[in-house]
Amino acid sequence: MARASTNYVCGDCGHAEVRWYGRCPSCGAFGTFREFREASPASAGRGSRGFRSSGADPANLRPVPLREVDAARAARLPVEPAEIARVLGGGLVEGSVVLLGGEPGVGKSTLLTGLALNWSRRGVRVLYVAGEESPPQIRLRAERLGFKPDEEAGFEILAEVRLEPLLAALEDALAGQAGPAVIIADSVQTLHGEQVDAYPGSPTQIRYCGGTLADFARRHGCPVFLVGHVTKTGDLAGPKLLEHMVDTVLYFEGSGGGAIRLVRAVKNRFGTTGELAVLEMRQDGLVPVDDAGVLFLGGREGREPGAAVCAVRNGSRIFLVEVQALVAGSRYGTPQRVVQGVDGKRVALLAAILEKRAGLDLSGCDVFVKVAGGGRLDDPAADLAILAAIASSLRERPVPAGTLILGEVGLTGEVRPATAESERLREASRHGFTRAVCARPADGRDRPRPPRGLSVAAAESVEEAVALALSAHHDAEEG
């Protein structure tokens, strides 16, 4: 008989404890611990998740030397649009598991329905597990995206949320399958297994169902998409352990509440992380955005103080992003540091560097920093632009239009060159920028010749860089 264990799990972050806590030790939330009972699988000869993870006889299991392992190449299925293919590393690897997370209503089901229609037109069979919507609702969306019954015959729907009957139906559907097949589970929060004594959507059910589907995908060699919701803090619901079970983790998010959608790869075993796809939600689905490199510069005039433009790198792409700052006298005893789109501790650190190394007094001022257009800055090369925007607002002197600010800042006040600086300068020149303030090359090396029409001024310190950024003219190093 299966033995049951009682645990307490945080409903926000999925942290588990053996006893109840009023405050979660992991995320700090109050009153989020819930009791649940988990029954261990009792079937003999089954894996820890209740299903055999491979077809091998356990009695014949033995270690295999690395030299005897087949060096098979991972086959990839074509993906349309190309923006998603690039985020996935060039295509969808057979047997891989992809976790797609995003807020409710952002368009996760629309994205996957569009991908499924494209695959079915190419002869790839798609099995869509309808956990949140009914089959008629899915057909309505497919028709809005251009569904044609004669062309998408391989788009099939399974309306089942019980894991055991679902796996049996998938086994039957894939029996004798000659060509590739893709499984989409929308969403993993709706699935529940009978061997786990927990409610659907609980961390234990999510971990159990996600792990079982991951085993199924690798055993059959068919890729699986798992749709996951996010918590109020923006993290994927359920334990972080689910991210370790899958091969790729994609975050699907909106940008500023408009029609723009961003797909970001935070984990990818078959490609680079940090890749970013920019899509626009239209009546006929999600389409790539033309010239996404200047997406976050829409409406920029460059006449007001408190704004600076930097070139940030996301994966293999360069984006021009505007950083805005507002410095105002504080009405309270402790000045505020309010940020949006950038880490608050990073802004506080840069403000301290600006005070110490450039002699600007921010001790009695509130500092507000925002990334225009709903972007997010993680690239260290944006440090100097953040400093320039703060200094511009404090001194009421705008950074001249057409000026790019680029460089990493150290605690001692030095300015360091950005990685792939030449690529960033070429992107800025392509969009009409004529000036750039960058770090001086290290070790006295010569700077590669900048693109035609772009002049570059080099700075060694924060004080020098701020002076160059706020000056109407500066002596170009090369141009």
What would your notes on this structure say?
The protein contains 10 helices and 23 strands. It is an alpha/beta fold and 479 residues long. It has 3 domains: 1-45, no CATH class; 74-290, 3-Layer(aba) Sandwich (Rossmann fold); 295-470, Ribosomal Protein S5, domain 2 (2-Layer Sandwich), CATH 3.30.230.10. The strands form 6 sheets. A 9-stranded mixed β-sheet has the order 8-7-9-10-6-11-12-13-14, with helices on both faces. A 4-stranded mixed β-sheet has the order 15-16-18-17. Strands 2-1-3 form a 3-stranded antiparallel β-sheet, with no helix packed on it. Strand 13 and strand 14 (285-288) form a beta hairpin. The chain is globular, with a radius of gyration of 26 Å. The termini are far apart. The model is unreliable at 41-54 and 474-479 (pLDDT under 50).
Average residue pLDDT = 85
Distance between the termini: 78 Å
Q: How many extended strands?
A: 23
Q: How is the biggest beta sheet arranged?
A: 9 strands, mixed
The fold-level CATH name of the largest domain is: Rossmann fold
Number of domains: 3
Structural class: alpha/beta
The gross shape turns out to be globular
- Count of helical regions: 10
CATH homologous superfamily placement of the largest domain: P-loop containing nucleotide triphosphate hydrolases
Strand order across the biggest sheet? 8-7-9-10-6-11-12-13-14
Strand residue percentage: 25-35%
As an assembly, this protein is single chain
Helix proportion range? 10-25%
Q: Mind telling me which CATH architecture of the largest domain this is?
A: 3-Layer(aba) Sandwich
